[in-house]
Design brief:
By secondary structure, this protein is an alpha/beta fold. Helices cover 45% and strands 17% of the residues. The chain contains 28 helices and 31 strands. The radius of gyration is 46 Å and the shape is elongated.
């Protein structure tokens, strides 16, 4: 019979703890008492064919079933284990099927009830049970037991469920060697809801049973705590699907397939099966694919220890298997629990340990020489503390990630009680969520661009303002356009009178005036043409400078700003070289297009031409010098008229330039105000994302946030005289809450006009006194600074995080970290329960770990029984230190640190084993090592009954 032999080592089947495998606990064999349809068409033995089907199936555990009898189970075992080719990993439990004397379904079929027995109990005890259990068949005035039923009586036989349970109690006493299940489909216990009497019968049967044979459609119902018709609390119970095979066709089409596929997470033992009674939602699942899938890249498979110390006395050579879900490390004081976790983390990511050490000076650094820890991952890759053996720079991309939280690390971070420290810590925690991190990086990039644009625009605004001041100051040196007209008219009248008395002929005068006018025109044209060449050269220089800023300058070995993307785009389909060539070509085309549109050589030719004309005009004027000797006054008037006309024209140009610059100034100022509003909205989008998507984590923990701008971060607040505050200042600053009203800030910027007389002046003619002298540029600079921050509030059951004890605060932050993190890599936590009471551990930590272990592998060092038992840890690693068990084994002295692992359902005691770790099962180690271990198991087994 396939069973765990107490003479062997029970840990030989422990492997990596509780793992998922396919179970089918309801299979009838050939010669089953009813509905036997196992038919063969040749000389093949029906039992041989049946055994072959079982052997080749991917189902690991079977319930060999027959009606009212154990005979076929015994016959099957004898035939199965006499063969040498069979699969020795298969496990078989006896399942005896009965019918009750009641019916509840609409077809009035009797309810089928099953008793599954531990395969390790003596079959003779089961036979004795069948000899005592009476049926409804009466012979000689007495009810006959199951063992005496004849072949034609099986179909009519039925039992009473009270008699069934009473007889089980008489034969087996308090032994937990059987479980009772009821079929809820076909001949099942799901009643007609229109019949209160049948509903009551169905509920009573439910109360007497441990589980149900059903389908996926029944799971939610039997997990409900309010399914009883009378309102009584109903404990959740597991539902198991099965093939109920009565033929080879059933085996071929149903066994381990489709809707009949049941996965159980446990050792393939009866005690493993019993775990589904305590964890009916998490230990059994009806589905086709294996549950709790995780990428092999994110699963640590084993930890091997190679001890090269003298005489191999510290660890020896050991291998510890690791489960893909939850692993807990327990042991006495100084038994090597934290050492193992630390060495595991160091083997995988020593850089992370160094970063922790920078933040946490009390972080304990274990330094063990000549001992190599080797971590094998499920994808076949290796990490080791002796990294050179397995790791080099060429394989840097093959590394694995973990999250390691050493003892009291979160508590240490939480003890920094300030609001700012809390905000920074939660910022770090939030960034462990990949979706949020992606969103935040994009928004931060947009904010950075916005800040750059605002800063550039402010520089332009200041330049324009300085230019306006310069033009305004220059205008003060000239009269108005109208005044120049008046003066020109007066001088023209004087000129006419003087000209009438001169000896110049009319033609000479006209020629002289024309020559003087031409000379002035040529001089003005030369000024304008030289300006054109100057500004065209300036434009080309700025284009070249921008080109150098982007692409660099080979002449002085400088790199352009684009080269910062070279590493970021290494593995991208974007070719930075091509982009650079495109930009180079673009700049060349721009310069060429400007030269073609405005060729400097053409302008230079014009200058040469005008200079020649100017020289000729000056030569032509020489002939009038003698005539003008006596007419200097007329010459002075003409020169004065020319001067006034030039000033008049220049004044017109200054006015045009001032008005154009003023329009540009106003446009840039409005643009900055709009950009400030846009930046506000970008920051608000972070606040909204967090409050909409990351606020509720279950476990009664809530996170909320507000976007704030503190007064202490605003330099303008330091400049103003707070004794006298105008409307703008009152709207901008909320002194009661020490905040800046950032929504009003763009309007404030737009309305601010100037600083004069140590006052801020606004567009509505109001002003605000300053307490210290400053300039408008400094005020503008203060207004555009990006000093926004997110303030977080975390509560647990209404209590604010900042008011919690350090232990409770650390736990809430740990849960936030784990719940927010979308990372799938393993997480290693050292004693998360420190400074917590059992209620908080059970309510907060246990429930969170139960959820998260389905998403990522967890390895925890703990002294708390609830974190092992009531998290339903799949694998428990027990640590032992030489001082706790120093007795030699076979005359050989012990190593200092030893480990053993297995699931919590591995339960036994055997004093014949020499090693303390092998003397008892995992359950016994938990009860022996951890305070409250026995109570934790009782709580787990009775939790639904307590409810």
């Amino acid at each position: 019979m396939k069973s765990i032999s107490i003479s062997g080592n029970p840990y030989s089947i422990a492997n990596d703890g509780s793992t998922w495998s396919k179970w089918d606990l309801h299979i009838h064999t050939p010669e089953t008492k009813l509905a036997n349809s196992y038919v063969i068409t040749n000389e093949e033995d029906v039992w041989d064919k049946f055994i072959e089907k079982i052997d080749t199936s991917d189902v690991n555990v079977f319930g060999i079933t027959d009606y009212y009898s154990i005979d076929n189970y015994e016959k099957f075992l004898n035939k199965y284990f006499e063969k040498e080719h069979n699969n020795l990993d298969k496990v078989f439990f006896p399942n005896i099927e009965f019918r009750l004397e009641v019916s509840v379904n609409k077809d009035a079929e009797e309810v089928n009830i099953h008793v599954i027995f531990d395969c390790n109990i003596d079959i003779e005890e089961i036979k004795r049970f069948l000899e005592h259990l009476e049926t409804n068949i009466i012979e000689g005035g007495r009810k006959i037991p199951c063992s005496r039923l004849s072949s034609d009586q099986f179909k009519k036989a039925a039992v009473n469920i009270e008699d069934l349970k009473k007889t089980l109690k008489i034969i087996f006493g308090d032994k937990k060697c059987y479980i009772i299940g009821v079929a809820v489909n076909n001949q099942g216990a799901r009643p007609n809801p229109k019949s209160p009497r049948k509903m009551n019968i169905s509920d009573n049967i439910d109360r007497e049973c441990d589980f149900s044979f059903g389908g996926k459609q029944n799971v939610d119902y039997y997990l409900r705590k309010n399914r009883y018709d009378n309102g009584e609390t109903s404990p959740p119970k597991p539902v198991i699907s099965c093939c109920d095979a009565h033929s080879f066709e059933d085996l071929d089409t149903k066994l381990g397939k489709g809707q009949f596929c049941t996965w159980v997470k446990s050792l393939p033992t009866f005690n493993g099966l019993r775990q589904i009674l305590y964890e009916p939602e998490d230990r059994v699942i009806i589905q086709v694919t294996e549950p709790d899938y995780k990428e092999p890249h994110n699963i640590i498979k084993s930890i091997s220890i190679n001890d090269n110390t003298e005489d191999e006395k510290i660890f020896g050579n050991q291998k510890i298997l690791v489960n893909k879900n939850l692993n807990t490390i327990i042991g006495g004081k100084s038994s090597g629990k934290s050492l193992l976790l630390y060495s595991l983390a160091k083997s995988i990511d020593v850089g992370q340990l160094n970063r922790i050490h920078e933040k946490f000076k009390d972080f304990k650094d274990y330094n063990i020489e000549n001992v190599k820890f080797i971590v094998e991952w499920a994808d076949g890759t290796i990490n080791t503390t002796d990294a050179d053996d397995y790791f080099d720079i060429e394989n840097i991309g093959l590394g694995h990630k973990i999250t390691y939280i050493p003892q009291l690390y979160i508590n240490h971070l939480a003890e920094r009680n300030g609001r700012e420290e809390l905000n920074n810590l939660i910022d770090e925690i939030l960034l462990n969520n990949s979706e949020y991190k992606k969103f935040k990086i994009n928004i931060d990039d947009e904010i950075a661009k916005s800040n750059k644009h605002i800063s550039t625009a402010l520089d332009t605004l200041i330049e324009l303002r300085n230019e306006l001041i310069s033009i305004s100051n220059e205008k003060k040196e000239y009269s108005t356009y109208e005044k120049y007209d008046e003066e020109i008219e007066i001088l023209t009248t004087q000129y006419k009178k003087l000209n009438e008395s001169s000896s110049f002929s009319e033609d000479e005068i006209m020629d002289y005036k024309k020559l003087k006018s031409d000379l002035a025109e040529y001089e003005n044209k030369l000024i304008h043409l030289n300006n054109e060449i100057y500004y065209l050269n300036q434009i080309q220089n700025e284009i070249e400078q921008n080109n150098c800023n982007l692409l660099g300058n080979k002449g002085n070995n400088t790199l352009g700003s684009l080269y910062k993307y070279s590493n970021k785009l290494l593995n991208s389909r974007i070719d930075l070289t091509k982009i650079i060539e495109i930009i180079k070509s673009g700049y060349s085309n721009i310069s060429r297009a400007i030269n073609q549109e405005y060729p400097i050589d053409v302008i230079e030719n014009d200058i040469i031409s005008i200079k020649k004309k100017k020289e000729k005009t000056e030569q032509d004027l020489i002939k009038y010098n003698d005539k003008l000797g006596s007419k200097s006054e007329l010459k002075d008037i003409v020169e004065k008229l020319d001067e006034l006309k030039c000033k008049k024209n220049y004044t017109s140009e200054l006015n045009t330039k001032f008005n154009t610059t003023l329009d540009d100034y106003r446009t840039i100022k409005n643009n900055i105000s709009e950009m400030l509003t846009k930046r506000n909205n970008l920051h608000k989008s972070i606040e909204k994302y967090i409050n909409d998507n990351m606020c509720d984590f279950g476990s009664e923990i809530n996170l909320s946030c507000n976007l704030l701008y503190g007064l202490e971060n605003c330099k303008l607040f330091e400049y103003i005289n707070r004794q006298h505050k105008n409307d703008h200042i009152q709207m901008l600053f909320d002194e009661n809450n020490k905040l800046v009203n950032y929504d009003f800030l763009p309007t404030f910027f737009s309305d601010l006009v100037k600083i004069e007389g140590n006052h801020l002046h606004f567009i509505n003619k109001t002003n605000q006194p300053l307490k210290e002298k400053t300039n408008l540029e400094s005020v503008y600079q203060a207004l555009i600074e990006d000093n926004f921050y997110i303030a977080y509030d975390v509560t647990y059951r209404g209590d604010n995080l900042l008011k919690m004890s350090p232990g409770k605060k650390g736990t809430v932050l740990l849960i936030l970290f784990l719940e927010l993190s979308t990372s799938e890599n393993p997480i290693l936590i050292d004693q998360p329960e420190d400074n917590l009471d059992n209620r908080t551990i059970y309510d907060l930590l246990c429930q969170m770990i139960r959820r998260k272990k389905k998403d990522r592998q967890i390895i925890i060092v703990t002294h708390n029984a609830n974190l092992v038992v009531n998290t339903d840890a799949e694998n428990v690693i027990v640590a032992n230190q030489e001082g706790q068990d120093s007795s030699p084994v076979n005359g050989i002295s012990r190593t200092k640190f030893e480990y053993i692992n297995g699931p919590i359902e591995l339960s036994f005691t055997n004093a014949r084993f020499s090693k303390i770790l092998s003397k008892m099962g995992i359950k016994q180690h938990i009860c022996d090592i951890l305070e409250g271990g026995k109570e934790a198991f009782k709580l787990r087994e009775l939790k639904y009954q307590d409810e």
